[in-house]
């Protein structure tokens, strides 16, 4: 399947800011990827622990998303490839090569799992700030290419890919996500 020349675009649920609406029409610029295994860190969440927010216990700050998130008693804290932190619940554990019983309150290295899922992605130039509203059970407004952090040439908008008539295309009914350009190549590999 070709990674270029996709003609079909379906309007759907991906809510993006007006300044990047061109990505829904310009599907020739979309590329296709699979996730890759990378090394992260995982630990059990502790509401009494100070993570990366000085003076605040039980809160993690994900600098890529400029978001503060409270930990949950039965959750886990992940530290990503660039040192960013976020919380996950038990349902996310299959993404990591570790048994729940082996996870401690201290950070430990873990490999992520490669899946067969195919993603469609497009890089937005670093000088163009934008937003994507996601809805994976809760609506969240994500900021792409926001000031104050590196973007490695530009952040990526990523959606699920679907096959239609033997060709891959972006699935605009997917909520989509933003992936920071500095870590994109660590997390994803070209689909061939």
What tags apply to this protein structure?
192 residues; mainly beta; 2 domains; six-stranded antiparallel beta sheet; four-stranded antiparallel beta sheet; 15 strands; 36% strand; disordered N terminus
Overview of the molecule:
With 192 residues, the chain is mainly β. It folds into two domains: 15-36 and 115-190, no CATH class; 39-111, no CATH class. It is 2% helix and 36% strand. It has one helix at residues 184-187, and strands at 15-16, 31-35, 39-44, 59-62, 67-70, 76-79, 85-88, 108-111, 119-123, 130-135, 139-144, 156-164, 167-170, 177-179, 188-190. Strands 2, 9, 12, 13, 14 and 15 form a six-stranded antiparallel β-sheet that branches. A four-stranded antiparallel β-sheet has the order 7-6-3-8, with no helix packed on it. The longest helix has 4 residues, at 184-187. It is globular, with a radius of gyration of 17 Å. The N and C termini lie close together (8 Å). Mean pLDDT is 89; it is low at 1-12.
Report the uncertain regions: 1-12
Note the main sheet: 6 strands, antiparallel
Secondary structure: helix percent: under 10%
What is the count of structural domains? 2
Content of β-strand: 35-45%
Distance between the termini: 8 Å
Number of helices: 1
Rough shape? Answer: globular
> How many beta-strand runs?
15
Instruction: Give the SSE string.
Output: EEEEEEEEEEEEEEHE
Radius of gyration: 17 Å
Structural class: mainly beta
Overall mean pLDDT score?
89
């Amino acid at each position: 399947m070709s990674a270029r020349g996709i003609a079909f675009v379906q309007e759907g649920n991906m809510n993006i800011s007006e300044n990047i609406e061109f990505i829904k029409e310009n599907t020739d610029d979309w590329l296709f990827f699979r996730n890759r295994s990378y090394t992260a860190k995982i630990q059990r969440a502790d509401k009494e622990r100070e993570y990366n927010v000085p003076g605040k216990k039980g809160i993690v700050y994900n600098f890529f998303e400029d978001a503060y998130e409270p930990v949950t008693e039965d959750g886990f804290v992940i530290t990503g490839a660039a040192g960013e932190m976020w919380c996950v619940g038990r349902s996310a554990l299959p993404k990591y090569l570790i048994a729940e019983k082996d996870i401690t309150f201290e950070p430990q290295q873990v490999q992520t799992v490669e899946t067969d899922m195919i993603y469609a992605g497009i890089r937005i130039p670093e000088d163009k700030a934008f937003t994507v509203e996601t809805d994976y059970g809760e609506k969240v407004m994500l900021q792409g290419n926001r000031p104050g952090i590196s973007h490695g040439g530009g952040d990526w908008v990523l959606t699920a890919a679907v096959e239609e008539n033997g060709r891959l295309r972006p699935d605009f009914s997917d909520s989509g996500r933003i992936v920071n350009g500095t870590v994109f190549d660590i997390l994803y590999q070209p689909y061939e």
